[in-house]
Amino acid sequence: MPTKTKEYDTRKAFLDYYVYVPLGAAKVAFDMAKELSGKVMELAQSQRHAVAKTYEDLAERGEKLAKSIRRSAYTRRAIDQTKVARSQVKAAATSVRKAAGSTAEATRAAARKVS
Hints:
Shape: elongated
Structural class: mainly alpha
Helix content: over 70%
Number of strands: 0
Distance between the termini: 141 Å
Order of helices and strands: HHH
Strand content: under 5%
Radius of gyration: 44 Å
Number of domains: 2
Largest sheet: none
């Protein structure tokens, strides 16, 4: 049969430490969050490094590809053809402008003769 002294000691201990239990639980939660945030930071840094490395690798590959395309015989030929076509279009535009001007002049001259 339990004695009153023992029951009183348990109650006294519970009442004496009721403040410490929430503090201890908060400390455990804080420690776990601190540990978890450390792991998250490590993971984020490693991910950032991986992304940066991948980005640099892709940029390097793209640069090599662009240089290879620029140096390609097909590209050079296309650039030359574009230059020729541009000068031909410019010449045609000049011819059309001159023809339109001379047509307008001929129309005016014909109108003067008729009147």
